[in-house]
């Protein structure tokens, strides 16, 4: 399922910063995106949503600049051009619960300036079909399950074939089967498009992203391939029968042994690293949340 497309930069951001009072939500973020799905990982409060909102032109940065798909949102015309090719799935999509799935997506299509009624209705049907919601398109959103609502939000983001898709934790709250289905949809969306996907699920990144950015305290801690992030943990994951006090983090696994990350003692039984291990080590264990 992993998207492999690379190539020239479609988005380049330089030194983006944004403060909320005394909080530096973004503190000099520079990054480069290409076509395909890039994962954005980071602990709570790292600045992921803020970065996505800036890149989706929902809020201007205090400092720094970016261009996306050749458009400069620092100018009024560039901002408009970028918005016309943008699909944004925010963390809390603002549904009107009494709208049906069709009415909501149609409403978004109108906002996206699809003014020809026939073409617009065809496009709404197309995106609802793409996310497998054709059968419930006449159902009110308040009666849909959480997973279906997420798919309505994705359909709305896909209206008008955007070249740049910004997805803020789209798989949160989904059961494993729905999450798998959603990953397939995002992988399809990533073919030929630039997709930035914020998530807390390291498996989302391992299974579907060709690049990954790790953000912490408003700064980029890592930018590269999922394989590079995993490789950071090579030789730094080991098993033990008791909790190892020298480990940066350690947790008891289902088999009763401990999985530790950090600097292993001599003779330790090394384990195959995962992307999550590489991610936790990148955060240096400081703000990593490890749930066994
Ligand atoms: N509108 C706001 N007003 C004040 N502070 C804000 C605002 N939005 C974000 N922040 C602060 O900026 C920092 C980054 O928040 P942000 O929501 O971008 O993090 P996040 O990585 O998306 O977190 P999470 O994983 O919990 O969604 C946090 O300290 C947050 O409290």
From TrEMBL:
SUPFAM superfamilies: P-loop containing nucleoside triphosphate hydrolases. InterPro entries: AAA+_ATPase, ABC_transporter-like_ATP-bd, ABC_transporter-like_CS, P-loop_NTPase. The keyword GTP-binding does not apply. The keyword Nucleotide-binding applies. Gene3D superfamilies: P-loop containing nucleotide triphosphate hydrolases. Residues 11-242 form the ABC transporter domain. PANTHER family: ABC TRANSPORTER, ATP-BINDING PROTEIN. Pfam families: ABC_tran (PF00005). It comes from the Bacteria. Belongs to the ABC transporter superfamily. GO terms for molecular function: ATP binding; ATP hydrolysis activity. This is ABC transporter ATP-binding protein. Keywords: ATP-binding, Nucleotide-binding, Transport.
């Amino acid at each position: 399922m992993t998207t492999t497309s690379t190539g020239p930069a479609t988005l380049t951001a330089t030194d983006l910063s944004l403060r909320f009072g005394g909080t530096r939500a973004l503190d000099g973020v520079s990054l480069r995106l290409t076509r395909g799905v890039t994962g954005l990982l980071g602990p709570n409060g790292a600045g992921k949503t803020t970065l996505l909102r800036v890149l989706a032109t929902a809020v201007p940065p205090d400092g720094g600049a970016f261009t996306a798909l050749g458009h400069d949102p620092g100018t009024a015309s560039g901002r408009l051009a970028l918005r016309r090719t943008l699909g944004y799935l925010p963390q809390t999509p603002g549904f009107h619960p009494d709208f049906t799935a069709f009415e909501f997506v149609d409403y978004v299509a109108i906002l996206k300036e699809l003014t020809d009624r026939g073409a617009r209705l065809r496009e709404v049907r197309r995106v609802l079909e793409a996310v497998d919601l054709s059968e419930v398109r006449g159902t009110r959103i308040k009666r849909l399950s959480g997973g279906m609502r997420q798919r309505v939000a994705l359909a709305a983001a896909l209206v008008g074939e955007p070249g740049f898709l910004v997805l803020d934790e789209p798989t949160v709250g989904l059961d494993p089967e729905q999450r798998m289905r959603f990953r397939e949809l995002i992988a399809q969306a990533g073919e030929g498009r630039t997709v930035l996907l914020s998530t807390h699920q390291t498996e989302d990144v391992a299974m579907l992203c060709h690049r990954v950015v790790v953000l912490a305290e408003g700064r980029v801690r890592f930018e590269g391939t999922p394989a590079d992030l995993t490789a950071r943990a090579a030789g730094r994951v080991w098993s033990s029968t008791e909790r190892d006090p020298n480990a940066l983090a350690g947790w008891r696994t289902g088999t009763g042994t401990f999985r530790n990350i950090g600097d292993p003692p001599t003779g330790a039984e090394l384990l195959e690293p995962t992307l999550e291990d590489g991610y936790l080590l990148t955060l240096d264990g400081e703000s990593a949340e490890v749930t066994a």
